[in-house]
């Protein structure tokens, strides 16, 4: 069962222009150290696509939480990490974590599921806040 969703689309050239213009200043303001370390291993084109996807994910998650980047929630409070299969997942810091816990508090565990996609000029992400204990796959025999 989902509780809230957010979606964002980013023009890759916008992130490219910001990166070329401001370099590390831009990266340090928007991305966590872990995100920058992971992205910098790629060639320039792929690096820009990854940065764009991560930015779209941060925006989508902030919208799913319900406030966007306001009320003390900043892009660096939302971190995109990857599991052993390179599937992205969310790690919240500071005000984003506190707001998420306060807004979606209950006895059931909540999780944020994301999906990021890239296509030449655009990166898009959808974020869904879900009740994780209800996500069981049933195998039916016919």
Description of the structure:
The protein has 142 residues and is an alpha+beta fold. The chain has a single domain (2-134), classed as Ribosomal Protein L22, Chain A, CATH 3.90.470. It has helices at residues 12-22, 24-30, 33-39, 44-65, 94-103, and strands at residues 2-11, 78-82, 88-92, 110-119, 122-131. The strands form 2 sheets. Strands 1-5-4 form a 3-stranded antiparallel β-sheet. Strands 2-3 form a two-stranded antiparallel ribbon. The chain starts with a strand and ends in an 11-residue tail after the last strand. Residues 134-142 have low confidence and may be disordered.
Short précis:
The protein has helices at 12-22, 24-30, 33-39, 44-65, 94-103, and strands spanning 2-11, 78-82, 88-92, 110-119, 122-131. The chain is of the alpha+beta class and 142 residues long.
- What is the CATH top level name? Alpha Beta
Strand order, largest beta sheet: 1-5-4
Count of individual helical segments? 5
Give the percentage of residues in beta strands.
Answer: 25-35%
Level-2 CATH architecture: Alpha-Beta Complex
- The CATH superfamily is 4'-phosphopantetheinyl transferase domain
| Principal-axis shape | globular
Instruction: Give the rounded overall mean pLDDT.
Output: 88
Q: Distance N terminus to C terminus? A: 26 Å
Total beta strand runs:
5
Number of domains: 1
Task: State the low-pLDDT regions, or none.
Answer: 134-142
Instruction: Quote the CATH topology.
Output: Ribosomal Protein L22, Chain A
């Amino acid at each position: 069962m989902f509780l809230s969703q957010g979606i964002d689309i980013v023009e890759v050239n916008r992130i490219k222009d910001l990166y070329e213009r401001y370099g590390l200043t831009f990266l340090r303001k928007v991305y966590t150290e872990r995100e920058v370390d992971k992205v910098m291993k790629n060639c320039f084109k792929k690096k820009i696509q990854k940065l764009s996807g991560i930015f779209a994910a941060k925006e989508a998650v902030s919208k799913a939480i319900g406030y966007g980047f306001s009320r003390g929630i900043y892009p660096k409070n939302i971190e995109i990490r990857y599991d052993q299969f390179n599937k992205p997942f969310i790690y919240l810091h500071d005000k984003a974590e506190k707001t998420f816990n306060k807004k979606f508090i209950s006895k059931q565990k909540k999780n944020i599921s994301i999906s990021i996609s890239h296509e030449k000029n655009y990166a898009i992400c959808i974020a869904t806040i879900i009740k994780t204990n209800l996500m069981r796959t049933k195998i039916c025999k016919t």
